Amino acid sequence: MIQEADTLDAAGGETVAQRHSIGGRSLARWLRRWPVSVILALAWVALMLVIALGADHLAPYAFTAFDLRHRLVPPALFGGGWGHPLGTDELGRDVLSRLIMSIRLSILIALFGTLIAACLGTSLGFLAAHCRGKVEALVLMLIDFQASMPFLIIALAVLAFFGNSLPLFICLMGLNSWERYARIARGLTIAAKEQGYAAAVRQLGARPPRIYGAHILPNIASTLIVSMTLSFPETILLESGLSFLGLGVQPPLTSLGNMVGYGREYITRACWIMLSPSCVIVLTTLSISLLGDWLRDRLDPTLR
Amino acid sequence: MTRFLAAKLMRAILTIFLVVTFAFIVLRLSGDPALTIMSVDAPPEAMAAFRTEWGLDQPIWRQFLTYVLNVAQGDFGASMREGRPAFDIVWERVPLTLAITLPALLLKLTIGVPAGVYAALHRNSLADRLTMVASVAGFAVPSFVLALVLVLVFSVWLGWLPTGGNDHWISAVLPIITLGTGGAAILARFTRSAMLEVLGQPYIRSASAKGLAWRRVVIGHALPNAAIPTVTIIGFMVGSLIAGAVVVESVFSWPGVGRLLVASVANRDLAVVQTILLFIAASMVVANLLVDLAYGWLDPRMRTGVAPSAGGGG
What we know:
Chain A is an all-alpha fold.
């Protein structure tokens, strides 16, 4: 059944489903709506959320606790014991506990960063669509500027020179992809204003906050949500990249990129320190991208 | 066409000016460089002398004006660490960065574009699915993870290639592969979706309906039209030739511009960071200009001013 599901999934559903007998049809239809890859992705994201929420209770050890007698212990299946399922680092700190705390911080940063970007970008997009003229030109110029500079470079400059506190870092992540939301919100709002409903609400005397917040926003929300599934993994990648370079999250706090950057020093002797956070980064970005693609197909026919 | 060019040129200059302003504001207002470079307990006279020497005792707008004028004259200031002109320090790193980013770009183009076109022409084939899987992976795997996995396999386990440095040309192999594969996957995805979009257009149907051989339809009608969105992403890659290797250079200890940037940021060497920002901005702006010219060349509507829906929506 798994194999069947895989074929279905890979073929995009339709063709294989049509060849099926009546008995398999409902299953096939269900799998078409919920491909296996999407279910796995959902499960993984749910797991990450559970870990992020319950990190304090799930971590078997304190993530900063040293145990100098058990340094560089390999993971359970590679010669280590089950006391440290993912092994320990060179100070004897439990890799699993650190991984759990890292997941929490990375998810937190990416979540807040994405939300800030979405709010900021959408507001600016609304502003541009509402005022037009010079304000719009200014917003468009900012969009162009943001899109034309690699954000990693901007972030590097800002971070190292403003010092590095966690709130500042989160705000910086929130500046990452605002231009995408601004562009979408502006375009869709201009289009929406031509349509009957926005004009009708305006004629009834609604003020701009009501028109935009209560009427236009719900109509463009699906596109914005799809964009969030695109920028969430980007934010995770950006955060982990910066932390990897030692310029993001600072010790004693730990994030996924941090662990990879620090595990790099031990790549020849203890590659597990760096491999487990790497896997988490890859699987998380992969899952959210898959979910995003799936959501896009279901929610939003205007995007490809 | 002249107006089109003039507008683009104005925009390019404006962007550069924005970057200069941004660099100045961020780097100058973020903290007292005198305190960072010298230790906290340095004698006050030495602090004052340092401030006067670097013009830090002037009003901020004055510093800005001086800075802009200097930049306009090609004077990027001197590195606070090394005392040499920042321009020279950055300039001598540029060839090293290009030594890995240019081959990587070539790799991206020679793999990404044909793979995308092939995948689009053979939709739902095995090759298409492999391309899609690779492109999703290319997005999800960050460059430092790919780099470290390559190091683990080819340097640590197999011992074929060095883990870093730049003593020998063979050290460049892993950085180039790291940069190239990620970019190729992204490019393949873009090319594929551009091709698919074009192949669904009515003019393709009419071209094949009038009896044109499929090969000629693809070469003469599909490829030029699909090139327009693809050129945008290639332009971004060209613009990133200097900026795009920050992480990879750091992983492989490759002494290029990116590693210099990370080091200068850590040392708060203002002049060098500003110079690098400007270098990167300039390369991005030039690339954008080239993209616009390529648009003008590929898409006659751009030249005549009958603007198509620019930007392609969302």
